[in-house]
Design goal:
single chain, three-stranded mixed beta sheet, about 350 residues, alpha/beta, binds nicotinamide-adenine-dinucleotide, seven-stranded parallel beta sheet
């Protein structure tokens, strides 16, 4: 299958593109490189463009005879979304509208969408099932919730068939060392702890030690990026079999506190991490843990890389060992071919 991977130069999208290629699909990456990296695009053609460029989107969908879209492209930082909410609605909501319009106008009707546990807000109970109320507490979560609602309505009123995958905390790196988490600034816990262990930052800030959790720090459900990538391949297979559209949690059902993560990074790296306590970050709920049986049942998917130790080991290896960064074919050549 020829699959358009929006945001395929980013962290999760690049791992998914590799998994798609391994499963004998052709991933075509479309990315504006706002937070992604051209060197992450290695398993198929690359189009350097924004979601808002609907003319290019339509050309790409037609030129590559795309059959399904995996839609990762988004802004994805909670704190930034509170500082600049409109940018989040522009990229994540208007960007998705542009993509949906382009897809439907050329007859592409299948989408796997990157949603988030941030759509639940502060959960009323743990673990969180898919039918839990969705009351986001930050503009990022709200933008993902809006996008899910658009999929739902386009499923009811047009031909769209979709799976929204609500990831919990993506973590870890490609065990073959080709890809890893490379955000700038890095705000995610595991890479931040690793960078501190490597002495590349003074210390790790632990934001919030007064949460109502066993050790006072926030509890999250960490899911390995390889398991996320595999779920996208399964979701495409699910849609190809004409199954009903739905939203699925992707997590392990296990909660891990910030202090437990720091302890694991110290164990794997053999180094002490200097830490400093800081206030809670606005918009961060105390505990987010998935009820994840539905994805296992529907997609026949089971996390196999997501023990905390494997997550930290793969991330540590990627950050601490020299990375392989290949030369990338210039995207403009591809764009030129599309326009020609
Ligand atoms: N990282 C997590 O823990 C997590 C959790 C839940 C959901 N998600 C979702 O997963 C997706 C991928 O997240 P990630 O961590 O890989 O982030 P990322 O920033 O590494 O990847 C996003 C990619 O999208 C591209 N992009 C952004 N806006 C674009 C636009 N308008 N047009 C074209 N390209 C654009 C960026 O350049 C980048 O390559 C996002 O939709 C995010 O909301 C991530």
């Amino acid at each position: 299958m020829n699959v358009l991977v929006t945001g395929g130069a980013g962290y999760i999208g690049s791992h998914a593109a590799k998994a798609l290629a391994r499963a004998r699909h052709q991933p075509v990456v479309l990315d504006d490189l706002s937070t992604g990296h051209a060197h992450n695009v290695r398993w198929g053609p690359f189009v350097h463009a924004q979601l808002s460029d609907s003319a290019t989107l339509r050309d790409v969908l037609r030129y590559y005879q795309i059959e399904a879209v995996v839609h990762f492209a988004a802004k994805a930082l909670v704190a930034e979304s509170i500082a600049c909410p409109l940018a989040y609605f522009q990229y994540n909501v208007a960007g998705t509208i542009s993509l949906l319009e382009s897809m439907l106008s050329v007859g592409v009707s299948r989408m796997v969408f990157s949603s988030s546990c941030a759509t639940y807000g502060v959960p009323k109970h743990i673990p969180i099932p898919e039918d839990h109320s969705q009351i986001p507490v930050n503009p990022y979560g709200e933008s993902k919730f809006f996008a899910e609602k658009m999929l739902e309505w386009m499923g009811k009123t047009a031909q769209l068939r979709w799976v929204a995958l609500r990831y919990f905390n993506a973590a870890g790196a490609d065990p073959e060392g080709e890809l890893g988490e490379e955000h700038d600034p890095e705000t995610h816990l595991i890479p931040s702890a690793i960078v501190a262990a490597l002495g590349q930052r003074d210390c790790l800030e632990i934001c919030g030690v007064d949460y109502p959790t066993p050790d006072g720090t926030a509890v999250r459900d960490y899911i390995h990026v390889m398991d996320l990538a595999a779920a996208h391949v399964s979701a495409l297979r699910y849609l190809a079999a004409d199954q009903q559209s739905l939203a699925l949690n992707l997590g392990t059902g296990q909660g891990t506190s910030v202090k437990e993560v720091v302890g694991m990074v110290e164990k794997v790296s053999g180094r002490k991490i200097p830490t400093r306590y800081a206030p809670r970050r606005p918009g961060d709920p105390p505990t987010l843990v998935a009820k994840s049986e539905l994805a296992s049942r529907v997609l026949h998917w089971k996390p196999s890389w997501s023990s905390l130790e494997t997550i930290v080991e793969t991330a540590w290896r990627w950050h601490s060992v020299g990375r392989v960064v290949p030369t990338v074919a210039e995207s403009t050549a591809v764009e030129g071919a599309i326009r020609a």
